[in-house]
Amino acid sequence: MKNICIFCGSSMGKSPVFKEQSILLGKKMAQFDFDLIYGGGNIGLMRIIADEMLKQNRQVIGVIPHFLEAKEISHTGITKMIVVDDMHQRKQQMIELSDAFVAMPGGFGTLDEISEVLTGYQLNIISKPLALFNVNNYFDHFLHFLDTMVKEAFLRHEHRNNIIVENNPEKLIRKLLHFHPVEIPHKWVEELIEHTERCVR
Asked: How far apart, in whole angstroms, are the C-alpha atoms of residue 30 and residue 14?
């Protein structure tokens, strides 16, 4: 495992704890010899984590679509910037370059990136670990929503339990390194088909 992809906000957030923990995560990633893949921005928590990794002499690769680069919000000091056509290509490039994913607090973009990886888990397209860095309990309501999905049978508990949740950056990285996905029954799609057929008869 070499590259960790960080999904995070283009805003700083309301509390200074988000910046503080972003810096600490960057330090810990460097201690474990990881390099950074991220969205290429020069604003918000994206800039904080990128700048910290650069301070630690680690490689920082950004991936940004043309229209955001044109708004002059791309980080010009990172190791390498990959410019793509659109947001979909951005996600795909970040996923391909990365060995693991960490979601920090963020908004719609972060939620979209988390969902892309989790959907890839379901479809057996992605097997790389995903961790939620639950700074200040930021993801608690999201996790509660996932639990509701399981309760109402829209999400398998195995898929839900493949998500690493941690508020300590060193423990988070160690969990990524020792990740073993929860086994999913091979016939789970067939079970969905059979259940649907029974319900529509």
From this structure: 26
Handedness of CA 139, 141, 144, 145 (dihedral sign): negative
| Contact assessment for residue 7 and residue 114, using Cβ atoms and an 8 Å cutoff | yes
Give the SS3 label for residue 167: coil
DSSP secondary structure letters along 48-98: HHHHHHHHTT--EEEEEEHHHHHTT-B-TTSSEEEEESSHHHHHHHHHHH-
Residues 6+ positions from 193 with CB-CB distance below 8 Å = none
> d(Cα 95, Cα 85) in Å, to the nearest integer?
16
d(CA 13, CA 60): 22
23: CB partners within 8 A, 6+ apart? 48, 49, 52
Q: pLDDT by residue (tens digit) across 117-169?
A: 999 988 888 889 999 999 999 999 999 999 999 999 999 998 899 999 999 99
Class of domain 3-200: alpha beta
The Cα-based distances of 77 to 27, 81, 126 in angstroms read 18, 9, 30
pLDDT, residue 88, reads 95
Q: Name the pTM for this structure.
A: 0.91
